[in-house]
Design brief:
The protein is of the alpha+beta class and 100 residues long. It has a domain of 68 residues. The protein has three helices and four strands. The chain is elongated and about 70 Å long.
C-alpha cells in the first residue's frame, strides 16, 4: 500500500534530524493518512478512500467530495479517484440534460 494521498497526491518527504550540536541525520516526514468513508451525493453511495487529514479539511471546505473532485487537477488524483471523478461528471451531466 502506497503512502500517498488519493486526492491530493501528498507523499513522504525527506529531511534532517538536527541535534543541538548541529549534527544532521536523515529522517522521513510522512503524511497523516487515514482510511475514511466519504459520501458522494451524485452517485448516492459511500466511497472508502485513503486520504491525508489535510485533504479531508479541503473536502469539507469545498462542500463535499463531488465538488472537490470536479475541481481537482487530474495529475494528482489516484486511479480510483479519477474513475470516481468521471462517474460523478457523467452523472451530473445526465441529470442536467434531463432537467433542461
Amino acid at each position: 500500500m502506497s503512502r500517498r494521498c488519493e486526492l491530493t497526491g501528498k507523499g513522504p518527504m525527506v529531511g534532517h534530524h538536527v541535534s543541538h550540536a548541529n549534527n544532521k541525520k536523515k529522517r522521513v516526514f510522512r503524511p497523516n493518512l487515514q482510511t475514511v468513508s466519504l459520501a458522494s451525493e451524485a452517485l448516492g453511495q459511500k466511497v472508502k478512500l485513503r486520504i491525508s487529514m489535510n485533504a479531508l479539511r479541503s473536502v469539507d471546505r469545498s462542500g463535499g467530495l463531488d465538488p472537490f473532485l470536479l475541481n481537482a487537477r487530474e495529475d494528482v488524483l489516484s486511479n480510483r479517484a479519477m474513475k470516481l471523478k468521471r462517474q460523478i461528471a457523467k452523472k451530473q451531466a445526465s441529470s442536467e440534460s434531463e432537467a433542461a
